[in-house]
Specification:
111 residues; alpha/beta; five-stranded mixed beta sheet; two-stranded parallel ribbon; globular
């Protein structure tokens, strides 16, 4: 299972259980997000503590989550970024767009 989703009163935590978030699995993350949206969950935390690499397809999935939450007046928080993923997000200047915290506890406190 690439993504582990836990729900608690209108908030979902999606844990990436993969080393690489790329074109081969980003569609799976998008599918999980669509299910959450369909179930009216608009506060989402994505915990990427186990993910060491992310490509443009992975970034696209993260932006889908951000847009979905924003469009429904919810909150999106990204947490647990490994240095390589953090650097990619900074290079793409998405650190100015996305709400990023160090860990899941901080992320949940921001929701």
């Amino acid at each position: 299972m690439d993504f582990i989703v836990s729900r608690n009163s209108g908030t979902a935590v999606v844990k990436t259980n993969i080393e690489k978030l790329n074109a081969s699995n980003a569609s799976g993350l998008k599918a999980e997000l669509i299910i959450l949206g369909r179930d009216s969950i608009n506060n989402i935390v994505i915990d990427m503590a186990l993910t060491k690499y992310c490509d443009s397809s992975g970034l696209s999935a993260l932006l889908v989550a951000n847009r979905m939450c924003k469009d429904t007046n919810g909150k999106f928080v990204l947490c647990g970024l490994m240095p390589n993923v953090q650097k990619l997000i900074e290079i793409a200047q998405l650190d100015k767009v996305l709400n990023i915290t160090a860990n899941q506890e901080e992320a949940l406190a921001n929701i």
